[in-house]
Design a protein that fits this description.
The protein is 81% helix and 0% strand. The protein has helices spanning 13-31, 34-43, 48-66, 70-84, 88-115, 117-122, 128-141, 145-160, 165-187, 197-226, 234-269, 276-312, 316-352, 356-371, 373-388, 392-416, 424-449. The radius of gyration is 23 Å and the shape is globular.
Length: 460
């Protein structure tokens, strides 16, 4: 007799749909930071001063644009609800309102940013030579803020329409164009003059304008097919803005928590022989944590789109069922990324630095981060579920509560960790995982277990 083969677990329809949305979303998320990486690869060959100036300008630019991520998240949830309710024309109308809101935020931000370029750079405290390069780059790069916000809003519309492939294609093409333009404009080719760091900023802006135009054209064509108006609708824009406020607060609490963590590391590093070692180690660990977050955030994007659609259709049972499946995906992804991070921890330091002290300090921190990956998997997924449900107000209050509890604890730990076994940095990461990620885990799972987020209908 032929021995029976073990049965393979069958993929459910929910699994296939999650994968269809999450895989392209992950690839697009990975492509996004390549804009600045492409700039860094080209500008780095100009000199250390230019590269440092790019780094300073990049922090300012990423902060300004990062605070507006609600344009993508809020639009995804609202559009998906309308799609679930069978109101595709209303979904596209709401998406167009999101595009106009992006313009309404982007244009004044650009003007104010250009006027305040010098003080914005000065806040970060670079020397005169680095500041000059940063200001040159930032003044030009700020012209790309409105296109970047349009990209966020249009991507949110397409995700709400259950399309994550189009943003992926645009992101890949945009990165290739950005790299080519950077080389041509920075160093000069043929009749094109050499522009140095200004050429890098100009190349990125041109690529961002192209990406924004491509995404907006896709949304506009879809709106025309459905007969949706393309004119700005002030009540709709105000509604989109109000819906974005809680998500903005949520984002601010997350960024504040990460800033507090970095400050705690700097505070604890003051007692070290070489304070650069723990700070550099923390930066590398946080960079790797952020990269792994792309895997988990891709499932969260699928959660936003699917949750909004099911609640728009009035199907709370389907919303709960797909949430359970996505949580399982989050846990599985967290376990896999955690195991991979733990296994690679002894060698990852070699990739990023030649400093033996940083390499040795990085291993225990990455092991702590690896243990936190399954928790992060649940946190990211449920965050996406509640965003998709339009439960931004709860997320804002929960974020404030977690920040209020975490900040004093991690700062207090920074004062005493020098006397703890193994040094301070690994223990600060233990506090980060247990208190910050643990606090988010408790607030999100508690909400998901109840019925307060299960509000059905085309609008919340």
């Amino acid at each position: 007799m032929t021995p029976r083969q073990p049965r393979r677990p069958r993929l459910t329809e929910d699994d296939r749909e999650i994968g269809r949305l999450a895989v392209p979303a992950f690839l697009a998320l990975v492509a996004e930071p390549l804009f600045l990486l492409g700039d860094a690869a080209v500008v780095g060959h100009l000199g250390t001063t230019e590269l440092a100036g790019l780094g300073i300008a990049g922090v300012v630019l990423q902060t300004l644009v990062g605070l507006c991520v609600f344009l993508a998240y809020g639009t995804t949830a609202g559009v998906a609800r309308q799609v679930g309710a069978g109101r595709r024309d209303a979904a596209l109308a709401q998406g167009v309102d999101g595009l106009w809101l992006a313009v309404a935020i982007g244009v004044p931000t650009t003007v104010v940013g250009i006027v305040l370029t010098e003080p914005l750079v000065a806040v970060l405290g670079p020397g005169p030579a680095v500041a000059e390069q940063a200001e040159t780059y930032l003044r030009i790069a700020l012209l790309g803020v409105t296109p970047l916000l349009l990209m966020l809003a249009a991507t949110g519309v397409l995700r709400g329409l259950q399309d994550t492939r189009t943003p992926l294609v645009v992101a890949v093409v945009g990165n290739v164009v950005n790299l080519v333009l950077n080389v041509v404009l920075v160093y000069g080719v043929g009749p094109v003059p050499r522009l140095d760091i200004a050429g890098s900023a100009l190349g990125s802006v041109l690529a961002q304008v192209g990406c924004a135009a491509a995404l907006v054209v896709v949304v506009v064509r879809a709106a025309r097919r459905e007969g949706s108006s393309l004119r700005p609708d002030l009540p709709g824009i105000r509604t989109a803005a109000r819906a974005g406020v809680p998500l903005l607060v949520r984002t601010l609490t997350l960024r504040a928590s990460l800033l507090v963590t970095t400050y705690a590391v700097v505070l604890s590093a003051g007692a070290a022989r070489d304070d650069a070692v723990p700070i550099a180690t923390h930066q590398l660990a946080m960079t790797l944590w952020g990269f792994l977050a792309f895997v988990l955030d891709a499932i969260a994007i699928a959660a936003q789109a699917l949750t909004g659609r099911h609640l728009g259709a009035g199907d709370t049972a389907a919303a709960r069922a797909v949430t359970r499946r996505m949580v399982a995906w989050g846990v599985a992804s967290g376990v896999l990324t955690g195991l991979a991070l733990a296994a690679a921890s002894p060698v990852l330091g070699v990739v990023f630095t030649s400093d033996d002290a940083v390499r040795d300090a990085l291993v225990p921190v990455l092991l702590v981060a690896a243990l936190g990956q399954p928790v992060a998997g649940v946190v990211f997924v449920l965050d996406g579920v509640l965003i998709g449900a339009g439960d931004g107000r709860y997320l804002a209050w929960a974020g404030l509560a977690v920040l209020g509890g975490y900040a004093p604890l991690v700062l207090g730990a920074a004062v005493v960790t020098d006397d703890w076994v193994g040094g301070g940095l690994p223990w600060l990461w233990v506090v980060f995982i247990l208190v910050f990620m643990g606090g988010r885990f408790l607030t999100l799972t508690r909400r998901a277990a109840g019925d307060g987020w299960l509000v059905t209908g085309a609008t919340r």
